[in-house]
Design a protein that fits this description.
disordered N terminus; 11 helices; two-stranded parallel ribbon; single chain; 65% helix; alpha+beta; 4-stranded antiparallel β-sheet
């Protein structure tokens, strides 16, 4: 008796949180709705972060491309010291020096009548240049950068769609296990009642003990199944927390199951319209546009470049004073060797453009099949919910009749337990069917280009 009281006291103490002056060792569990999980995943998921960083990188690339429209400004400074003069002037020719030597009987050389200029010097300056014509390089590079930003935004939308579907999968699997556990609890209570009936009938000598043992075996099986369900739910909760960017928090889902089952006909949309609304379709169009711009850039590399500019310098060469100087210039660069080397790159880009068109056509056909498959799956899961709903009513009625017949001695315990198993399966299958339908609904809305509808469903 003392041991029993000690155990009860220990269990009672465990009900209270242990708190000291620093912190509490008890962590409260956070229950989250589907909307809260989706909002957390859109900011905390690794794919979402990567997609946002890709956009920021594309924006910086866009700014870099736009800077090519502005003049380039460069500064330079140099100082030199030469072993000899850079410029030399001779006052007399060699013949004149030889004539002087003959007349004056001297031994002079041309160097004796030569003086030099600029042996050392210093120069600092600024150069400003603006390309007037580049064959379309700058314009097409900017279009390509703008296209990259748009493509990254579409890729973020696609990543968001994948995050939504993955989050819903984990969320509804956890919810499904919660509902299954509640169903098993209800079955356990019902089995307790059946067990008590079996014990009473056995004690009255109407049946043997096998009926009691059969019920107890089923009870053991349900207990083992509840343990597996609990472990699976715990693992999925951790996976969901990691997926939405909250790995250190103990989270659970709101166990309210949305059973608003909408017939597929009310959600159906024209396949061609859905195809054009898809982010992937617009991304394929951008892929073709990208190949066109790259082809134009390859062609521009074979064309001349015209630029104007000005230089301002401050130099000291021939005197001890600094001399300012300003000079304007116009320049043309002709890529002569590029004309026959770059044309191979141009032809390669033309082939890439054709490949991009073929790839777009193939993927559009694949997306069409994907949309049709998503609608077929939506229809199938909807039909499964309707069948499962009818099965619940039939299983409950079968269970009621089997129990009455058993109490009246008109059926066996095996038949009663089989009816109870069918009732459990019907409830479990219905919850699973609803979960699969809701996921199929979200997937169909997303795959038909109705992302906002999927968010608000």
């Amino acid at each position: 008796m003392k041991m029993k009281n000690k155990i009860l006291l220990t269990l009672a103490l465990l009900q209270f949180p242990v708190v000291n002056s620093q912190f509490s060792v008890v962590h409260s569990q956070r229950v989250m709705t589907l909307e809260e999980c989706l909002a957390a995943a859109r900011t905390g998921n690794t794919k979402a972060k990567d997609a946002q960083n890709d956009i920021l990188m594309a924006v910086e690339q866009q700014k870099l491309a736009r800077s090519k429209y502005f003049p380039t400004l460069g500064a330079s400074a140099f100082q030199f010291q030469s072993s000899d003069y850079l410029i030399k002037y001779s006052l007399l020719t060699k013949e004149q020096v030889e004539t002087i030597n003959d007349n004056a009987e001297s031994n002079l050389s041309v160097d004796d009548f030569t003086f030099g200029l600029i042996r050392k010097g210093t120069n600092v300056g600024l150069t400003l240049a603006e390309p007037l014509y580049t064959g379309g390089r700058v314009t097409n590079y900017n279009k390509l950068a703008d296209l990259q930003v748009d493509a990254r935004n579409l890729q973020r939308d696609i990543a968001d769609d994948e995050i939504v579907m993955s989050t819903e999968f984990l969320y509804y699997k956890i919810l499904e296990l919660h509902v299954t556990d509640k169903t098993l609890q209800a079955m356990e209570k019902e089995l307790e009642s059946i067990h008590q009936d079996a014990v009473n009938i056995w004690e009255n000598g109407i049946v043997n003990k096998n009926d009691v043992l059969s019920v107890e075996l089923v009870q053991d099986q349900l207990s083992a199944l509840r343990i597996k369900t609990s472990n699976g739910c715990r693992l999925l909760r951790r996976a969901l927390a990691k997926h939405i960017g909250m790995p250190d928090e103990d989270i659970d889902v709101d166990t309210t199951l949305n059973k608003d089952i909408v017939p597929p006909e009310r959600l159906a949309v024209n396949v061609q319209t859905a195809l054009e609304n898809r982010s992937e379709t617009r991304l394929l169009d951008m892929l073709v546009e990208k190949s066109v711009l790259e082809r134009k850039i390859a062609k521009a590399n074979m064309l001349p470049v015209l630029a104007v500019g000005a230089t301002a310098s401050y130099s000291k060469f021939t005197s001890n004073s600094w001399n300012p100087r300003v000079m304007g210039f116009v320049g043309v660069q002709l890529p002569l060797s590029s004309f026959w080397s770059e044309r191979h790159e141009y032809k390669r880009k033309m082939i890439e453009e054709q490949k991009a068109n073929d790839f777009r056509q193939d993927k559009r056909e694949m997306i069409t099949l994907q949309i049709q498959d998503a609608y077929d799956n939506l229809t199938s899961t909807y039909q499964q919910t309707q069948i499962a709903r009818k099965s619940i009513g039939r299983a409950e009625e079968n269970m009621r009749i089997s129990r009455e017949h058993y109490q009246e001695g008109l059926t066996t315990m095996t038949a009663l337990l089989d009816a109870q198993r069918q009732q459990q399966q019907a409830l479990t299958q219905y919850n699973a069917a609803v979960s699969e339908y809701l996921q199929a609904k979200t997937k169909y809305l997303i795959l038909t280009g109705r992302r906002q509808d999927a968010k608000q469903k």
